[in-house]
Design a protein that fits this description.
eleven-stranded mixed β-sheet; alpha/beta; five-stranded parallel β-sheet; 510 residues; single chain; 3 domains; Rossmann fold
């Protein structure tokens, strides 16, 4: 197949030039086109064969739903089983624009378009070329990002051509997109509106219109959605990834810079080609093969705009090992970090100044907190109890962060603990309570996302009394999650936590 390229002025789309692309859509073909977020790969949303072509061209899992793009609100009423007031309010405020809404669907849109779900994801783009294409063709267009599945999303027509040339009928070249990250997705089919994918329109903006809005835990947690069917694009599968290995380094700026430079130095000795994603402010502080600037921290939207292009440039440069600063900016930071963490496969290192490592001996209560509280947290608690002197005044507890009802100890965790002489007979999981976090308490989590969850939810938690186990031990990688794995994997997790706690205790010795 020869892919035709049609160049269009994004500010003044030529309707005559778009006619061929419109005919391709009507006949069941595929057209890539610019939106205000990223380039989309479009096909007739009502045509199940067109949707199947989209999945095939991208190499996309067929249970990963597509977003239906419309040009008029009446089309939403045509394809949704019902349109609640919340959808009308959001459309009044944010459409056309970078917001996708999920609603129960009727039979107009086939299951092949929705990934087999009885809900449909819909948005109304604001980009002039996208609006002209939708209006002139009079076709509701199913359109994921126009890239090979798993690769960084395209922000230029050249990116689309690189991935999909010869696989699709047409690419409309409308120049660079504006925002650079995919739309915000909010699920309106649940009792409380829930953000399934963060984007330009953030939680605060949605709450101004709707009141209470939840955030899906999978947005920044790699494990939260691994066992569920994805209700929206990007919820489960790895996305946005460069060809080399990317790691995100979090922490205070000067410590992050030092940590990245140390890692780069080691990689260079190993003969690896290295790269760093930096900002305007830090670009001259790194010593590696290629330092690429994502943007300016004083203008966070520049980071969003440039992120995918930077990831693709590293591929062009043949970069094998990449490190990125963390970009937890106030407005669109969650969206940036969601994409960056997925691109990194959730490989995160927290660069911690050694001066901030705490002595467990300085506390009277140590609480290990993780997940539903039946696996890593009790194993860590059991290890520490065994490592501490018999007459230690330190109280050691195990807690969960999401405990709907008391559960017994995970059977494989129990088996590993028993083989190491640790018994938690009669154990039942309990949720962490705010009143348990006193001024002589330290809460230890298994990863940074759990720590942030506690800092956000519990008023008594603070930066000093809530820590990550690996950080306290001065380790680069967070504690592995053995859940769903073999007994051997649980054993490895146990040994890793034991080593970490031995380091923490030894660092506090006089």
């Amino acid at each position: 197949m020869v892919t035709k390229i049609i160049k269009i002025d994004p500010d003044n789309p030529d309707k005559e030039a778009l006619k061929e692309a419109c005919e391709i859509l009507k006949s069941g073909g595929l057209v890539a086109f610019p939106t205000e977020t990223v380039y989309g790969l479009g096909g007739d949303a009502k045509n199940r064969y067109a949707s199947e072509k989209i999945y095939a061209a991208k190499g996309r899992p067929s249970d990963n739903p597509l977003i239906v793009h419309i040009h008029d609100f009446s089309e939403l009423e045509e394809i949704a089983a019902n349109v609640p007031d919340s959808a009308r309010k959001l459309a009044d405020r944010f459409w056309p624009g970078p917001l996708t809404m999920i609603l129960p669907k009727n039979n107009v849109i086939p299951l092949e378009t929705t990934g087999g779900l009885d809900t449909v994801a819909v948005r109304m783009p604001s980009h002039p070329v996208a609006r002209a294409l939708l209006t002139l063709s009079n076709v509701m267009v199913a359109a994921p990002s126009a890239n090979t599945s798993g690769r960084p999303s395209p922000t230029l027509a050249e990116h689309v051509e690189e991935d999909l040339s010869g696989k699709i009928d047409c690419i409309i070249d409308g120049g660079p997109v504006n925002i650079g990250l995919e739309s915000t997705i909010v699920d309106l089919s649940s009792p409380v509106p829930t953000i399934l994918r963060p984007g330009y329109i953030n939680k605060a903006m949605l709450e101004e219109v709707l009141g209470e809005v939840n955030i899906d835990p999978g947005i920044l947690d790699s494990n939260a959605n691994k066992n569920i069917r994805p209700k929206a694009p990007g919820m489960r599968y790895r996305h946005y990834a460069p060809k080399g290995d990317l790691t995100v380094v979090e922490g205070e700026e000067s410590v992050v810079i030092k940590k990245i430079n140390d890692l780069v130095e080691k990689d260079k000795k190993d003969g690896k080609k290295t790269g760093v994603i930096a900002t305007v402010e830090t670009k001259d502080m790194y010593h590696c093969d290629n330092v690429l600037v994502a943007g300016d921290r004083n203008d966070e939207y520049t980071i969003a705009h440039n992120l995918y292009d930077v990831l693709r440039k590293f591929d062009e440069l043949g970069t094998e090992k990449m490190y990125s600063e963390s970009f937890e900016t106030p407005k669109i930071g969650m969206a940036i970090m969601n994409r960056l963490l997925k691109a990194a496969g959730h490989r995160v290192i927290h660069a911690e100044d050694n001066k901030s490592v705490l002595r467990l001996q300085d506390f009277r209560r140590v609480i290990f907190a993780a997940g539903n509280g039946i696996c890593r947290a009790p194993m860590a608690a059991g290890i520490l109890i065994k490592l501490l002197p018999e007459n230690s005044p330190v109280e050691v507890l195990s807690r969960g962060l999401v405990v709907q009802f008391p559960e017994p100890l995970n059977q494989k965790s129990e088996a590993v603990m028993a083989s190491n002489g640790i018994s938690f007979e009669g154990f039942e999981s309990r949720e962490l309570l705010n009143e348990e976090i006193t001024d002589k308490t330290i809460v230890i989590t298994m990863d940074e996302k759990q720590r942030k969850f506690i800092l956000d939810k519990y008023p008594s938690a603070n930066e000093n009394n809530t820590r990550v186990l690996a950080q306290m031990a001065g380790e680069e990688l967070e504690t592995m999650d053995p859940y769903g794995g073999s007994l051997a994997k649980y054993g490895l997790c146990f040994e890793a936590m034991k080593t970490s706690l031995q380091k923490v205790l030894s660092s506090g010795e006089e």
